[in-house]
Cellulose synthase-like protein G3 (Citrus sinensis), 676 residues
Amino acid sequence: MEKQQNSLPLHVSHVKKSSLIINRSLVLLHFTSLAFLVYYRVSYFFQVSNARAAPLLPWLLVFAAELLLSFQWLLGIAYRWRPISRTVFPERLPEADQLPGIDVFICTADPTKEPTVEVMNTVLSAMALDYPPEKLHVYLSDDGGASITLLGMREAWKFARSWLPFCKRFGIKTICPEAYFSDPENGDGDSGNAEFIVEREKIKEKYTEFKERVTRAIEKWGLENEGISRSRDHPSVVEVIGENDNEAANEEQQMNNKMPLLVYVAREKRPSHPHNFKAGALNVLLRVSGVMSNSPYILMLDCDMYCNDPTSARQAMCFHIDPKISSSLAFVQFPQKFHNISQDDIYDSQLRYIFWSLWYGMDGLKGPIVSGTNFYMKREALYSVSMQEGFKQLHCKGWRSVYLNPERPQFLGTSTTNLNDSLVQGTRWSSGLVQVAISKYCPLIYGPPRMSLLESMAYADLGMFPLLNCLPLWCFATVPQLCLLHGIPLYPEVSSSSFPIFVFVFLSALSKHLYEVLSTSGSIKIWRNEQRIWMIRAVTCQLYGSLNAIMHKLGLAEASFSATNKVADDEQVKLYGMGKFDFRTSKMFLAPLVTIILLNIAAFVCGAIRSTIIKGDWDKMFVQISLPFYILVMNYAIIEGMIVRKDNGRIPPSVTLSSALLSGIFLPLVSIILRH
């Protein structure tokens, strides 16, 4: 019987045949329509100059924008070529004494933006994983060197002595205490057992006391002052939490309640020395853990991404200890999911497109890339790359990865729920991606000799999408509209045989996105919200992130990092729950949005009047009238923030006024250039 069990697979993969057939059919149709579109645009250059309906410059700009988006679509074929899903069987794993050790790395940087209690909940959930405690080692990197974080670790250790046995004894699945006690109706545990109810109340009281002790310490020490003074200038500290706790040691021996190793690490930081942000912190954790535990596998977590299920380690080991793939497997990636996302998800904070579509497609190639958190990585794979290379070309060195998305979220975190944090985060991500795309590690240059063409295309799409989004969308948001104001047609008239080509390309792109949303349990409302935030990010954070990367490449700017704020005020939460945008953000982000909306309003109103009443050439200008109409409908939330709303989350009237004045000065100059 034991021999038969050992022969059973630990995991199986399933090719998503329906998605495969639909995706490849759409690829064929869309490619054909794009070929006709390119033919239409190129034929313009063979016309006699006097017979051309539009000046050369705007025609070239629109054609270039269409080519860039077509190129991005071409790269994206890689994701849709062979999507797969996976199932694991952790019950078939060997006995506990045969399982390998795991080190858990958790990084925090600023207690003013990453609340200490929230960080400690992540630590406690990692300690409570269903894994042999003597083979589980949890390391917290505190890049802020904050005393409150160290105190929080000591208090968390004390509470863990009660929390871990409670979870193990009653089979608790929600192993994050804050999440567990916040939902009394979660059905986790034997609610009909009187002993369980008594124990639960005792643990809840201890957890309340733990939070109160941390809160009192924050009030006593002054968090703001400490965070500012120590975040960039502090000595190194390494402390094994509970190492000298004799009472805990005696309790472990008597009750056989073994505890995982818990270590606090604050690396030395000085203003005069570069510290490489999170990459530098992980490098220090790698060295410290290599001396103390040196486990062959490492779980990496963001400080706000707690373990929501105790079995993730065992699920990951179903791949890592499989002799058929173990030698080449670098990491097992779980999706990022969030507990604070509203049903509408107006900022696309759940990153649905990545974790519900792209990563399945990459798993059908050689596996997804590292997503920053929620992955179990082989230590040997980490040692095979330099800090300059990072995790981005692991696959180029022969490693592969797998993507696992169980029905129950294995990890839950806190995502951005306001426009400012969403765009700041997007700027940082865009800058990092474009830096790779324009470096010597450009996937289209560095990748093909080392990996398959489809893998190189997938990597290239990820690295280049900020550039391939921001440039075309800025063009489509301005050039056709300016030409519409002057009666310059850039698209075929309705009666032309070429008109259906543009209609089909537009509807094909929208229907592809709609299919992906609906097939991943989304809704039409989610589809609309994703379309809107895609446009907003393209003309703001993706533009700024791309420019920052280019300036950094030229030596004109330094790389920067800012932790995303995890503290939300009441009004922000209220607006988010109502599905309303919170426009309290930098003018740097608001000015482009307002300018584009004002231009599209003017173009639609004036263009429609001119084409239907004055000139009567609506059939020639139909596409250019429809384009601003579509932009305005999809982005009504911005119009509402400019004109209708009166709450604190509206767009300040001063931004609208200044954008209108600047538009009135510069847009006529641009129009003159385009006309000639």
